[in-house]
Design goal:
mainly alpha; globular; EF_Hand_1_Ca_BS; EF-hand domain-containing protein
């Protein structure tokens, strides 16, 4: 069975391979999933997430955080 993280890397969501998704990577990933959002909206999603779940890597998301952001925000769409 392929791990979720390997899928994360396979689809090149984490383009710089640092283990986190930055704003540009998130915007691209959302577009691949069919969600074309303006940059300000993607930035707002990450800022809202950072306020609710503070971490040491502000402004970027781990794979688990990426899944959480998608589940919260895409159910609103």
């Amino acid at each position: 069975m392929v791990s979720r993280y390997k899928l994360f890397l396979k689809f090149q969501i984490d383009k710089n391979c640092d283990g986190y998704i930055d704003l540009a990577e998130l915007k691209d990933a959302l577009e691949v999933c069919g969600f074309k959002l303006p940059g300000w909206k993607v930035r707002q999603m990450v800022e809202d997430f950072d306020r609710k779940y503070p971490s040491v890597h502000q402004g970027s998301l781990s794979f688990d955080e990426f899944e959480k952001v998608l589940s919260v925000n895409m159910t609103k769409a």
